[in-house]
Specification:
This protein is α/β, with parallel strands linked by helices. Helix content is 41%, strand content 14%.
């Protein structure tokens, strides 16, 4: 009788242990995945390809540079200034409208002056406390805090690109998965310069601009 009970108890014990392991495994995996991505520390690998990405995203939405109304939401962190500068210098030559949502107007003074001198572009600014005044059809959001929802001032047809709040992924074939609002868009691979090559060209362009400024 004791042996019979033991034989029935042992399989139940192992089944219970397997069940416990199965139930706890997703929780551990979820914890690992949750720590894998954080907007506060994320480094976007697609910054140096942004002009090509924007061209395809705009083409997908039937948007041209002639009717582009670009809004840039400032990161307000010095560590992200290089990313902002890199993107602005990639696309500024084709812009007819640019609105900066920032509490650092002094930080963009040199850029605003140079844009006016070179292209005639009048860059507008509004403080973040008045962001509801901002209206545009393409928004580049450099903020890292997920608590700041741009939906309060977004047009329903606006293209919203969170630079740090969501992950941008480059596949092996160089297709790029771009977060667009609450959805994603796969941008087909083009010729994409290597990051070190793009950085080198950017440094040359920057030196040239500073030389011309005297």
């Amino acid at each position: 009788m004791a042996k019979h009970r033991m034989r029935g108890w042992i399989p139940r014990l192992f089944r219970k242990r397997r069940k416990d392991r199965t139930e706890t495994k997703p929780t551990m995996t979820a914890c690992v995945l949750a720590k894998k991505f954080s907007p506060l520390t994320y480094q976007n690998p697609c910054i140096c390809y942004m002009q090509s990405i924007l061209n395809q995203v705009m083409r997908n939405r039937n948007l041209t540079y002639q009717n582009l109304e670009l809004i840039l939401i400032d990161a307000q962190q010095e560590a992200d200034d290089e990313d902002i500068e890199e993107i602005l210098w990639q696309i500024c030559g084709r812009l007819n409208y640019l609105l900066l949502v920032t509490d650092r107007p002094y930080h963009y003074e040199a850029f605003i002056c140079e844009m006016f001198e070179q292209t005639g572009l009048i860059v507008q600014q509004v403080p973040k406390s008045q962001r509801n005044r901002a209206r545009g059809n393409l928004i580049l959001d450099f903020e890292r805090s997920e608590n700041n929802d741009p939906g309060t001032f977004m047009r329903t047809d606006a293209i919203y690109l969170p630079i740090y709040k969501k992950q941008w992924e480059i596949a092996e074939n160089l297709d790029i998965t771009v977060p667009v609002g609450y959805n994603t868009l796969v941008v087909e691979s083009l010729y994409l310069p290597r990051p070190e090559e793009r950085l080198k060209n950017h440094k040359i362009d920057r030196l040239d601009r500073e030389f011309r400024k005297g």
